[in-house]
């Protein structure tokens, strides 16, 4: 049975018809409009995606806090500053299909659990390194949402009390030390201190671009690799804390920054193994890269919607 998955981002909306085995059968992408215009744009996308298929449900992944009923978005600052928007109801008024909404990191984590790196485990924690740091927790083969629906905001775990100010209003959140923004900061600090390829990239391009940074990593540039060690060490230490709290079998590292592969994964593993408690006395999680593409959010949203109707296969 097919379902439609929609992944709403701050700049782009991706939607697709997804089969029961996680394959995207057809797909669309549009720019994210302003405010509640998102609702009409997504409704139109769903109508077009439904025209050649017979989906059983629609899953919508949203970058924000979703309540436990998965009907209301409590806050989504990257989508026109949504606060307490009854998203499921607004879509139900436009679409004659069962609607389920969820946090975008939950959807991506579910996709990894069902079809990617986490297929062989029942307990998995995913960390997505993009501009910020997102997270998802799979416990006993299900998405863990907590008492109010807002669990797994792992980027806002405090690791440096009194540290850098975070957009959430707190200080010392891991997002400020293990994210795309943090990587930019580490790279600029190393360029200013050590010069080298990072400084040359800034001189040539005016900034540290993603493509330029990846090229430096691939060439073995010490400054670029050192910046990944800075980030990986922070994230690995945070994983050690999460191991003590959640005891997962597997950490999955995803998001755009994870595309650099081993130069990031190696320092994460090293910091994790040196920081985790009782390392020699108990099993601890593996740490692996995500296997799903950037389409994980829409695939996971579709599969969660299908599962909510009792159709997992």
What do these coordinates show?
The protein has 313 residues and is an alpha/beta fold. The protein has 9 helices and 13 strands. The strands form 3 sheets. The chain has a 5-stranded mixed beta sheet, with helices on both faces. A 5-stranded mixed beta sheet has the order 11-10-9-12-13, sandwiched between helices. The chain has a 3-stranded antiparallel beta sheet with strand order 5-6-7, with no helix packed on it. The longest helix has 25 residues, at 222-246. The protein starts with a strand and ends in a 5-residue tail after the last helix. The model has no long low-confidence stretch (mean pLDDT 92).
Number of helices: 9
Structural class category: alpha/beta
Strand tally is 13
User: What Rg, in angstroms, do the CA atoms define?
Assistant: 20 Å
List the helices and strands and how they pair.
Blueprint: E1 3-8, E2 12-18, E3 24-31, H1 37-50, E4 58-62, E5 65-66, E6 73-76, E7 82-85, H2 87-92, E8 99-103, H3 104-115, E9 124-129, E10 133-139, E11 142-143, H4 180-194, H5 196-205, H6 210-219, H7 222-246, E12 250-254, H8 262-275, E13 286-289, H9 296-308
Parallel strand pairs: 1-4, 4-8, 9-12, 12-13
Antiparallel strand pairs: 1-2, 2-3, 5-6, 6-7, 9-10, 10-11
Short description:
This protein is an alpha/beta fold and 313 residues long.
Keywords:
313 residues, 13 strands, five-stranded mixed sheet, 9 helices, alpha/beta
